[in-house]
C-alpha cells in the first residue's frame, strides 16, 4: 500500500529533478496537494510517474520574455509559477487597495488550459519584442 510518505518523497524527488521549484514543493506539502491512497489500491497501481504527470498538468507558468527583433535572441527571460503571481496579488492587496480588486483566480479561468499570450509588443525603434504569456 502506498503511504503519504511515498507521496512526500515523490514531491521531493520532483524537486530534486528540477520538475518543480521549492515554492511549489512547499505549497504542495503544506496544502496536502497529493492523492490519498485507498485501501483497495495495490502498490503498483499508484506510481510516482502518474503522480508527477498529474502535478505537471496542474502547474501553470507565467513568462516574460524580451528579445531582440533582429536576431531573435532573448535578452531577458523570467519564468515563475502562476500561483506565485496569485499569491503576490493576494499579499499585495493587504497593502494596496487597488491590488485587492484584482481577481487572480479569475485569470486562470480567463486564459483557459492552453498557452495564452497576454501581451505581445514589438518596438521597431529599439528593436525589441516583449512577450508575456502563460502556459
- What's the total count of β strands? 4
Domain count, please report it: 2
Query: Per the principal axes of the C-alpha atoms, what is the gross shape?
Result: globular
The helical percent reads 40-55%
Strand order of the largest sheet: 2-1-4-3
Low-confidence stretches: 33-46
Which structural class do the helices and strands define?
alpha+beta
Features:
2 domains; 135 residues; alpha+beta; 4 strands; four-stranded antiparallel sheet
What is the topology?
Layout: H1 4-17, H2 22-30, H3 48-58, E1 61-68, E2 74-81, H4 82-92, H5 97-100, H6 104-111, E3 116-123, E4 128-134
Antiparallel strand pairs: 1-2, 1-4, 3-4
Helix pairs in contact: 1-2
How would you characterize this protein structure?
- The chain has two domains: 55 residues, no CATH class; 74 residues, no CATH class.
- Helices cover 42% and strands 23% of the residues.
- It contains six helices and four strands; from the N terminus they run αααββαααββ.
- A four-stranded antiparallel sheet has the order 2-1-4-3.
- Helix 1 packs antiparallel against helix 2.
- The two termini are 35 Å apart.
- About 10% of the residues have low confidence.
Task: Give a brief outline of the structure.
The chain has helices at residues 4-17, 22-30, 48-58, 82-92, 97-100, 104-111; strands at residues 61-68, 74-81, 116-123, 128-134.
Amino acid at each position: 500500500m502506498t503511504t503519504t510518505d511515498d507521496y512526500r518523497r515523490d514531491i521531493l524527488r520532483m524537486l530534486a529533478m528540477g520538475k518543480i521549484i521549492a515554492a511549489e514543493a512547499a505549497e504542495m506539502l503544506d496544502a496536502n496537494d497529493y492523492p490519498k491512497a485507498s485501501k483497495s489500491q495495490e502498490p503498483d497501481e499508484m506510481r510516482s510517474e502518474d503522480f508527477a504527470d498529474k502535478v505537471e498538468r496542474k502547474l501553470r507558468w507565467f513568462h516574460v520574455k524580451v528579445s531582440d527583433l533582429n536576431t531573435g535572441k532573448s535578452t531577458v527571460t523570467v519564468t515563475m509559477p502562476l500561483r506565485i503571481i496569485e499569491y503576490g496579488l493576494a499579499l499585495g492587496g493587504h497593502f494596496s487597495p487597488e491590488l485587492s480588486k484584482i481577481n487572480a483566480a479569475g485569470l486562470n479561468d480567463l486564459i483557459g488550459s492552453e498557452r495564452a499570450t497576454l501581451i505581445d509588443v514589438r518596438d521597431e525603434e529599439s528593436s525589441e519584442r516583449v512577450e508575456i504569456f502563460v502556459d
